Protein: Alkyl hydroperoxide reductase C
Organism: Pontibacillus salipaludis
Amino acid sequence: MSLIGTEVQPFNAKAFKNGEFVDVTEENFKGQWSVVCFYPADFSFVCPTELEDLQNEYAALQELGAEVYSVSTDTHFVHKGWHDSSEKINKITYTMIGDPSQKISRNFEVLNEEEGLADRGTFIIDPDGVIQTVEINAGGIGRDASNLVGKIRAAQYVRQNPGEVCPAKWEEGSETLTPSLDLVGKI
Amino acid sequence: MSLIGTEVQPFNAKAFKNGEFVDVTEENFKGQWSVVCFYPADFSFVCPTELEDLQNEYAALQELGAEVYSVSTDTHFVHKGWHDSSEKINKITYTMIGDPSQKISRNFEVLNEEEGLADRGTFIIDPDGVIQTVEINAGGIGRDASNLVGKIRAAQYVRQNPGEVCPAKWEEGSETLTPSLDLVGKI
Amino acid sequence: MSLIGTEVQPFNAKAFKNGEFVDVTEENFKGQWSVVCFYPADFSFVCPTELEDLQNEYAALQELGAEVYSVSTDTHFVHKGWHDSSEKINKITYTMIGDPSQKISRNFEVLNEEEGLADRGTFIIDPDGVIQTVEINAGGIGRDASNLVGKIRAAQYVRQNPGEVCPAKWEEGSETLTPSLDLVGKI
Amino acid sequence: MSLIGTEVQPFNAKAFKNGEFVDVTEENFKGQWSVVCFYPADFSFVCPTELEDLQNEYAALQELGAEVYSVSTDTHFVHKGWHDSSEKINKITYTMIGDPSQKISRNFEVLNEEEGLADRGTFIIDPDGVIQTVEINAGGIGRDASNLVGKIRAAQYVRQNPGEVCPAKWEEGSETLTPSLDLVGKI
Amino acid sequence: MSLIGTEVQPFNAKAFKNGEFVDVTEENFKGQWSVVCFYPADFSFVCPTELEDLQNEYAALQELGAEVYSVSTDTHFVHKGWHDSSEKINKITYTMIGDPSQKISRNFEVLNEEEGLADRGTFIIDPDGVIQTVEINAGGIGRDASNLVGKIRAAQYVRQNPGEVCPAKWEEGSETLTPSLDLVGKI
Amino acid sequence: MSLIGTEVQPFNAKAFKNGEFVDVTEENFKGQWSVVCFYPADFSFVCPTELEDLQNEYAALQELGAEVYSVSTDTHFVHKGWHDSSEKINKITYTMIGDPSQKISRNFEVLNEEEGLADRGTFIIDPDGVIQTVEINAGGIGRDASNLVGKIRAAQYVRQNPGEVCPAKWEEGSETLTPSLDLVGKI
Amino acid sequence: MSLIGTEVQPFNAKAFKNGEFVDVTEENFKGQWSVVCFYPADFSFVCPTELEDLQNEYAALQELGAEVYSVSTDTHFVHKGWHDSSEKINKITYTMIGDPSQKISRNFEVLNEEEGLADRGTFIIDPDGVIQTVEINAGGIGRDASNLVGKIRAAQYVRQNPGEVCPAKWEEGSETLTPSLDLVGKI
Amino acid sequence: MSLIGTEVQPFNAKAFKNGEFVDVTEENFKGQWSVVCFYPADFSFVCPTELEDLQNEYAALQELGAEVYSVSTDTHFVHKGWHDSSEKINKITYTMIGDPSQKISRNFEVLNEEEGLADRGTFIIDPDGVIQTVEINAGGIGRDASNLVGKIRAAQYVRQNPGEVCPAKWEEGSETLTPSLDLVGKI
Amino acid sequence: MSLIGTEVQPFNAKAFKNGEFVDVTEENFKGQWSVVCFYPADFSFVCPTELEDLQNEYAALQELGAEVYSVSTDTHFVHKGWHDSSEKINKITYTMIGDPSQKISRNFEVLNEEEGLADRGTFIIDPDGVIQTVEINAGGIGRDASNLVGKIRAAQYVRQNPGEVCPAKWEEGSETLTPSLDLVGKI
Amino acid sequence: MSLIGTEVQPFNAKAFKNGEFVDVTEENFKGQWSVVCFYPADFSFVCPTELEDLQNEYAALQELGAEVYSVSTDTHFVHKGWHDSSEKINKITYTMIGDPSQKISRNFEVLNEEEGLADRGTFIIDPDGVIQTVEINAGGIGRDASNLVGKIRAAQYVRQNPGEVCPAKWEEGSETLTPSLDLVGKI
């Protein structure tokens, strides 16, 4: 059974955001769309480029009413230290959650127990705190943040238009399908 | 713990491919790259367009040395029936696996036990039968098969160039990074 | 212990009937006589002829106040697809239940867990939802729907005439036996 | 899971046959076709007519190479007593098994534990001792032995012609179907 | 621990008595003295003579206010059939209990689980439903019903004269002993 | 399940016999017929008369090749003390077993655990150490040793003439029955 | 953990005292000092002399307000029998408890489970029913009752003078010690 | 079950003896008679006088071939410290075992778990390491070491003269009893 | 998980302090700072010098509002005995707790179960009874009590100035740090 | 039970040392003395000064043949990042172990499971990999590294001079004690 359709489980965490240390709980994932992006380790290699790429999409995601959170098993202290040190990370303005207790990573089923590090999982969560999409890549395979906008648009359309279905590669404005018995076996 | 980095578990199944009924096991996922695409049900709505979209990428994926498999909990008989009935499905030339025992869907952790149907999960598997990427969408949010090519290319590059890392949005020919201590905190 | 004399256990299912998708629960089996006919798989071989044969008896069974339900572990979508494709199945006007969660088949103890398919079991259920007859055949041995009418008539006679017993090969109008002590060892 | 396709479990019993007391085990069900007919109680009401009806088919069943066994939880002594007393039972020449230990009835899942009596179950067993058909009726609904001949013929045809399938209401000499991919969705 | 001094456990049974089928429960064993006589099987060998012998004592036992019950794991139907067939059994006017569910035999600890038949146990039960004497013989060793009268008289004397004790081979009218300290070691 | 037909379980005990202390084990019950008579307590009331009665039959039982053993949970020291004190007990020449460990009484299922005393059980054991008859009386109801001779004769006849059966109230020299099918329902 | 300082556990027993049968429970051990003397068996060897010796001290113990109880796993009937037979035992006027259920012996942890006999344990119990001294000897080593008087006097002194301590070999009238810090390491 | 007749369980301990620290194990209790004297605490009140009293008997016990050991849950360091400080303890020449791990006290069932101190138990152990006598007193009731000599003499006599028994208050040279059947109930 | 930050668990003990025996519980560790110093054994080697060293710091610790407790598994009797005997220990004026039940040592996780002795652990406990520092040395490595003053001062400063942090080797009057985001990575 | 005297459990970790990433296992703690210093988090407040203080003692510790390791649950990547950012940390030349799997911290019993961070524990380990000293401080109470030199010297002296003991505040060259019986209670 995948996590799709399940509600985010409770947690308490410290995060770094815009030069501040802030508290984050599962309640932050309710009332707006959320993108949650796990990565293994601060100060490691692929991660900065992925997180920079995510920052580049941040404005577009915010326009769609979506907030962005990155999570690693590092502390919020380390997030600040990295933010201060790395040119790429310094640009980041979204919330960087510290998960040293590994509880959030375990809840999202991306914790590598042997290493104590999170897999590279990206989750889209709807305003009810329910997980809508999961994407996880093995180490070394970078994620492309640019398709998050499309996925959220599709998810928002489905949410606003219950009873219609959204074919593959849907783009806003394109025709959608309202399921009817006649369509069975026709499309 | 995610399925990333784990080997596909054993199974036996009947499939429909090119007008034939064939046997498929986990051994089929070894010796070449594989894309495995789960979907809930034949003769239902989003699925045909997703599967058609996957067919459109099939040639490109084959050029990369990747085989494509679709899986639902329907039987291979139903796959043939659908193939005969639906214009979109009729184009499909890749292997359509029947999983009425629900064993494969359960192994890939995409079985909705309540409904007896698979979630919309896509997996890329390397030639060792090890899962490299996972992507799962809630019902109604169509998948875009076009980014499979990019992901496999990245995965292949990482496999062929151990010791280099592949930043986000990597495209073939672009520069990659060889991890060195000096890069820590710099990128 | 057989299922004879036990009440049908609760379930929720989607079915295809007369070009519509309808909901069916165990409550549908109460208030009238029901014939429930399990078979392994849509689009497979013996099944169509058995189901066609059942359709041929449908009018006669309805005259006896009996409803007819077929069940396989295929979805209601597939039932519609098969109905559209197959000349034999297209004639069917009774309710075709989809049991992809395999719950109904498991409740009636006809699920082949290894294959995920139902055995060829036929059940007659009385208006209290209590199972009165069970008949199950191995694959390949077709069922003869024509004796369902006789069985239901006998079951209805017994229900309406408690205290009489119905000898083998009973036919309506023929003499029945009222059990009395004198009959012991005489018949 | 039904008993269809499972082998008869081991047992030891005393039986009455042709004026003799004989031993019967599960080995008697191997090497020829067998009809095993459970009924609740000697000296009770429906049973004699059902058993007489079975006797009437005995010759035809023997011509098909099938042996006939009746079973109740009465002893073999009682079977002899009943045979001596009842005009209908006196005609019986097939084997009447006594199952006072209730083990056989429990193995065939027809034992009513509360009453200590067997349900009215009829089983056809192939020469490997494997159950091919099950039929069970509630009390008062008589069984019609005449369709046993047809069922055994169908079962024998399937056994002798693996790869062909036998549509409903099959009768010897009628055309059977050899399953091929082309037939899917056509019949 | 023996059953002596324990109350008969609850049961429900059908019995044959004087040409009628009657219901019997553990309540029938209260309010009068009862003799309960188990035997293995109707229509078998020693049993008829034992049961006939018991019938011969029935009048004398009734004069003592004692009722008589025979029990085997045969049904009440079989008891009637045997009553009709056997000259010896036909004389019986006491209650013949059918115990096909084997519950009574199990409660009295005389059920041979392997055979499903009762051992030859005779029990005297007082008007409170409490077991006063147990006698069980191996197969082939006939019981002598004639000493039941003496045992019940002794049991009744003890019940009516609490505080006296009844030496071996006591006969009505003979002197009994009132236990006193002086008797210790004297008798 | 009664103890009839079961072998006596192992034990070690001290006994008093003919002015001597002797060892007794379950092996003493093999190679000859044995009568084992449990009683609650030395120096108590009914017991002496029962034991005296048993002594009176001792010679007759020995002629039949049967040994006699009395058992209580008293020690062998107490048996000697009682033998010395009581006129009735002083006559006893059979073996008086002491069972202070209560093991023998528990094995024969006659131990009243609450009181630590044995019920009044009498057992006949065949030369294989197998229990053939059980008789247990509540306190106050004396046993009549005189019918032990008859029971042992019957048991010996059955043992020497396997295949014949012994009707109730059988006495030596009287006609016995050889079971044959023809007798079923006739006697 | 020894029994010293623990309260006597509940029991019910029959005893022989002064030619009477009396009831004894753990309540009898409250309100006065008690000496409880276990021994293996009536009518055995060391025991009579030990019990006679105890009788010789009885008057002195009574003067101290102490009652005396002997206990064996023999019954009260046997105690009377022994009292009648043995010159030594005949002198006894204290309470002889029968413990055939072995419960008291087990509670005082002196039951030899293998033999069903009590070890030779002597216990002094204070007026609260709390065990103050334990003495147990192996078989053959006789106890000397004469030191019971001294032990009870010491125990009584300690009870009446809490805060003083009583050195070894204390005798009434001799100086006792009131514990004070100054005594530590001095005596 | 008491410890009488059981072998001392294994242990390892440090002890103080004659100005030396020595090792003691359960093997020290074999090959000669041993007196083992537990007491609660060094530097406390009753203990010194008891231990001094034991020292006074030491020579006499050694003449009988018996060694003496005192045990408390104090360490051997404390034993030395006490020996140096206390006039009474300074006289001690027997072995003073330290049991800070509380294992020996627990094995002899004299450990008060709540306090971590040993009860005042004295044990006589025979040359096979088997416990022959147990004596335990509540706090404040001093032990009298002088009767140890008598007990060991009695135990030695029994050991050397198996088959004789030793009446209460036995003293060397006095007549003992050889158990014979004639003595039962006579003494 | 260490004991740091956990509350002291409940206990009851006797202690020696200033020539008195006093009761100590976990409540004594509340309302003031406490130093608890475990050591293996009175009258052993390193311990006296460690305890003397602790006495030397006692005045300074009291000035800081801290009480001092030593604990070993010896009794309070032994503490007094040692105090009287040893010149070094005689100087001690702080509380010497006796822990013969080993409960306190077990609660502080310093009990060597095999030996029954405590490891050399020193604990600083704050006025809420919460453990603030732990220091444990292997046998032979003496502790230096002089750094307790510094540790308590640091702990007191932190307690009185929540929100400031105290760098290593902090000494009263030196500058402390108030954590702020700007300090991350700077110090 | 404390960790004193136990061997370090196996682990595998990545560490940062002198600008390199190196592997560290429990084997690194064998063959020389080791100081292992846990702290909660890189880039947090007290930690840098503690670690700087430890660096200041590093040369002196190396002269004693001791290696130094710091451990936090941060990764080795973060250690490098911190090393690059912080002036204080940049001076560090000893090995900084990353323990993101939390296994080492859990083995040393300093993991705060709720927070996922290590307590401030310092351990001295001897050349056999056996823990000799433990010191743990609550958050905010800085450690003073300067006393590590003294502790190691003392531990080394004890190791090289088995049989001597080392009083508190021992310094090299000062007199040590060789334990002898005479010293008991003297020092």
